[in-house]
Amino acid sequence: MTTADRSVLDLIELIYGAVGRPEAWDPLAVAIGESFKSGMSVIGFDSRSGGYQVLGGCPRTRPYLAEIANEYYKYDFVSGPFYSRPPGDVVFTSDIMSDADIEATRYYREFMVRYDVFHMMGAHYRTFLGATMLPSAMRSRERGAFTEDERQTASLIFRHVHRAVELHTTLEASRDRASALGQLINSLAAGVVLVDEDGRPVEANLRGQKILARADGLVVEGGKLAVACPEQAQELRRLIAGCADTTRGSGQAAGGHLRIAREGQGGFYTISVAPLRGLNLGAKKVVSAVMVNDPDRAAALNPGHVGKLLDLTMAEAKVAVGLCRHVDIKDAAESIDYTADSFRTTLKRVYAKTGAKGQADLMRLVLGCLPAGDG
Fold first, then answer.
1. CA atoms within 13 A of residue 119's CA, in its CB half-sphere
2. Are residues 285 and 346 in the same domain?
3. Domain check: are 148 and 258 in the same one?
4. CA distance 284 to 345
5. Would residue 183 count as lying in a domain?
6. Which positions ≥6 away from 55 have C-beta within 8 Å?
7. What is the CATH number of the domain that holds 359?
8. Quick one: residue 237, left, alpha or beta (phi over 0 = left, psi -120 to 50 = alpha)?
9. For residues 331, 335, 341 and 345, what is the CA-based torsion angle, rounded to 10 degrees?
10. Does residue 275 sit in the same domain as residue 332?
């Protein structure tokens, strides 16, 4: 193995070492620049709608790059000939412009002269997320033009940069989604526990964590979500398994609900289980959301407030709140002095007005009428 080969392998190791480490991309860009004896190297994005962003670059030029980059796209040697080349082709400025034409550009006057660069090479690649990834290297006129051997090496290096950027941006997007998800479920009035196909909790909002900590009906045993009553425990496992089948595409179960007695407290927890598709938190795949209606919270529901927020009549709001407090229709009807038939008739109107797909969905909407910090 030659010294040059070793240098390339070391650089590839650095490239993949930057995945998931935002702070590593500037040093990587510097290392790429040094490998080509260039004054600087830049790893950037062109999302067009979102403008140009620098993922990695020489620290001394980073601020100016971000400032001038969107102007840079106006120049023909970028917006025209460069983007007309096939993705992955390494292009030299000398391939598309003469030295005199380069010197006539505003980019040359405002950027290249300022940072003592003249010869440039780069490529463009499409990423999973729809942006264009732009690795490039630049060096001074005194150091001479890039060679064909360097073009070949850049082709190899830039391909690895492209792949690493896709991995990195996908990971960062997943982190952003996970963060957004955490904010969302913490704003819900119900307790929410996200579980994997084995019933193991993956994430829970703050209210869900408090309910599990009480251990007065819904608990974690052996790392899995469980309840004390064997019949109810079996039903909970069945609902989660059905959601797992739906998530895998091998079933059509829409989840369901059950009522769990609270030990030593009296009353019940109303639990709704619903499948979730395409949600991964790190290495863990979530198959269902277990939503827990804390009876202490449900007691705080005001039919008048619910009716106003969901555009329901008072009778319809009483039915919606009653169902939220008592998962069993007969119990819910009795709680507001309705017959079961009258309750069902009114409930149909509630579903039609709210667009709820079932009891679990309606519970989510009604509990959402409670302020997040209430209770």
1. 17
2. no
3. no
4. 42
5. no
6. 25, 43, 44, 45, 165, 168
7. 1.10.10
8. alpha
9. -110
10. no
Write the burial class of residue 354 (CB in 10 Å: 0-12 exposed, 13-18 middle, 19+ buried): middle
The string of pLDDT tens digits covering residues 280-325 is: 555 567 778 888 876 666 677 889 888 888 889 999 999 999 887 7
> Does a structural domain hold residue 184?
no
Q: What is the mean pLDDT of residues 4-24?
A: 77
Q: Which of 294, 318, 337 is the last residue of a domain?
A: 294
Its domain, for residue 357, covers 299-375
Find all residues with CB under 8 Å of 116, minimum gap 6, and list them: 39, 140
Residue type, 297: R
User: What residue type is assigned to position 197 of the chain?
Assistant: E
Per-residue 3-state assignment (H helix, E strand, C coil) for 197-238:
CCCCEEEECHHHHHHHHHCCCEEEECCEEEECCHHHHHHHHH
Please, are residues 146 and 92 in contact by the beta-carbon 8 Å criterion? yes
Q: Which two tokens stand for residue 94?
A: 């000398």
Count CB neighbours of 104 within 10 A: 11
Q: In whole angstroms, how far apart are CA 284 and each of 51, 171, 193, 197, 340?
A: 34, 14, 14, 10, 42
Residue 166 shares a structural domain with residue 20: yes
Mean pLDDT of the chain: 78
Buried residues in 39-50 as b, exposed as e (16+ CB within 10 A): bbbbbbbbeeee
Q: Are residues 31 and 120 in the same domain?
A: yes
Q: Are residues 289 and 308 in the same domain?
A: no
Concatenated DSSP letters of 140-189: -STT-PPPHHHHHHHHHHHHHHHHHHHHHHHHHHHHHHHHHHHHHHHT-S
Look at residue 277 in the predicted model and tell me its pLDDT. Answer: 61
206 with 284, same domain?
yes
Q: How many Å apart are CA 80 and CA 74, to the nearest integer?
A: 9
- Counting every residue written for the chain, the total comes to 375
In Å, how far from its chain's centre is CA 2? 43
Number of H helices, E strands in the chain: 17, 13
Q: What is the count of structural domains for the chain? A: 3
Q: Give the per-residue pLDDT at 1.
A: 46
- Return the pLDDT at 375: 42
